[in-house]
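Next up, a chain.

===
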Amino acid sequence: MIFLTGKKIADILSSTFLFEGVSDEEILEITREFSCDERSYPKGEVIFSPEKFERVLGVVLSGRIAVTKGRLSVSELSRGSLFGAAALFNNEPEYASTLTAKTAATVLYFSQESVLTLINRDERIRMNYIRYLSARIRFLSEKVDTLGEISSEKRLARFLLKNADDRGYVSGCNFSEIAGRLGIGRASLYRELAKLEEAGVIRKDRNGVEILDPEKLSQP
């Protein structure tokens, strides 16, 4: 059942990798043709886990969803984010991660059969799907590189440099989430931040972190 209006759903879908270059009118026809399943989740509900999942492609319509693997925070999904591609066309008995509603969230699901039909008949969607998978491979590769660094200091430095804006400012820092993404404890993160601040490399405020010396931060 579709709870949002077709136009609102088309607006959201058109912002995703999968439907890039596809008109709103075509997207509306797709949602009418296929059995898209819209579901709502309260804050804290586990959506998918290694033991409980479906072979579907999900699109987040609203809210935020945390992606974790064990105790490690992998990423956060928000409006327009896709998930489920890795499990869609394989026979692995377990899902790779756990998805939990960080806030109340709504998700639109495309079945395996629907996605297969779409990528077979529409070259634009087929190429979009391939590009999406390539981007996920790159993201995971960078994640492995980050976790493979020897020290928590190097992990933190890489995170700050990657997420800084043109002014060298990293905004919206939730340090508990950053610790999870970097695979280190909060105490270790705070120690590393304090060391960098004492060395004059960064300056923290309540809104984020300003990089004062990017050259020193990027040193091996």
About this structure: The chain has nine helices and eleven strands. Residues 119 and 125 are 5 Å apart (CA to CA).
